[in-house]
Protein 1
Amino acid sequence: MIQKFSSWICCQLGAREHYSIPRSLNKAGQLTHLITDAWVPPDSMLNGLPKPLLANLRERFHTDLAPASVYAFTSSLIGFEIAQRIQKKTGWEQIIARNDWFQKNAIRLLYKLDTQLFTLNYRPTFFAYSYAALKLFHYAKAKGWRTILGQIDPGPFEEKLVMEEHARHPTYQSNWQPAPSHYWTKWHQECSLADRIIVNSLWSSEALQQVGIPEHKIDIIPLAYQPPQQAYDFVRTYPSVFSDERPLRVLFLGQVILRKGLAALLEAAELLNDQPIEFWMVGSKGISIPQPSHGKLQWIGSVSRSATVMYYQQADVLLFPTLSDGFGLTQLEAQAWKMPIITSKFCGEVVKDQVNGLILPQVSGQAIAQALKFCLNNPWQLEAFAKNTDTSSFNLSQLQQSLQALPYAVI
């Protein structure tokens, strides 16, 4: 007899994907518990602080999960982060310490919930994201639970690409370092313990297979995104001609690092220096720029999640020339605001070439410049792309159906 697993426990470090997996499961009545590092409901004392303080932490809540069973370690997280600063831990040392801290707290909680979980009439499905799942999977396997790994990026194959990009551009100084070897050893162990591995794009699936993860274990499920209500009524307009008074506004939103195609973007900016175009660079800067930045580049810096809305509304096109991304949620956010996208082939499949944007044949300054010149010379085409934007196939209901259709979900 086929029986669907209707009980899920989700362990999530961070606000990844706006909590889309636990939200979709909760909507279907299948989320038993969400275990996360921080949760700040509206009545939290933290929301009484002046607005700039702990802005990102205070966004760690979602109304869709207000009625759900959510366990978090918010106070412990604040203490952990303070200790990390005092100890001056950074980079991989800090990332690995945070992953270990989260798993230790989650396992301690699971032991407390042991009696309650034992009363379930079926084995729950246990979901956790990569790099913070190994200890949790050992616990889940000992209980006889099904284990699902959410792979957040294309793994060690991506690291190899980034290493090569840094070698090609030594003048762009950064603090980037490859992960220590034991980081990847533990990841391979996570993959071995996982019954299924969820990736968000064909690109990620191919990258995992390149390092020995069997294809039969991998399932491709795109990200889900629920547009904000005000996005549905938003109307995007373009001038008949771009000019110095009304230039083409190109939005780059994300980490300002080489993996995101920064070297090619900056080369394109130089090639287009005499054109009515400006680049809005929104995100934390992870590389130093050797040449002086010309006036076309506006370095805005890091902003909170909620503050990105203004840039989606006011820019004309999103530039996403990534060398490698597991998906690129910013693509769905841009589409929700009816914004055309110029993207690479190395991420989630959101853009249909010449329908709702442009797909770069390669990540190079020349290719980006050519795509932007097309936009400059054809504002009417941008308007057509904007009318073709669509996020309907990336909704929570579709995500929930995809999760239930996975082979592990039946016995």
Note: The chain has 15 helices and 13 strands.
Protein 2
Amino acid sequence: MNENDRIAAELKELEYNIAHLENEKQKGWLSTSKQNQLAEDRTRRDEIMAKGSRSAAIKQGADAIKALRFLA
């Protein structure tokens, strides 16, 4: 499994956990420890998404530079 597959699997698991905990929260079943877990899962998901956005932006910039070099 490469790095992208590992990250995708982690995101999928985080999304599942967040949805499950949100459902429990709506029903009023969320304990303090589960509230903390929900906050941690959201934070981790946001970190992964932000890192992915930066990586995509860097790749787009590199691709644009390659294209400009080709045209020059």
Note: The mean pLDDT is 84.
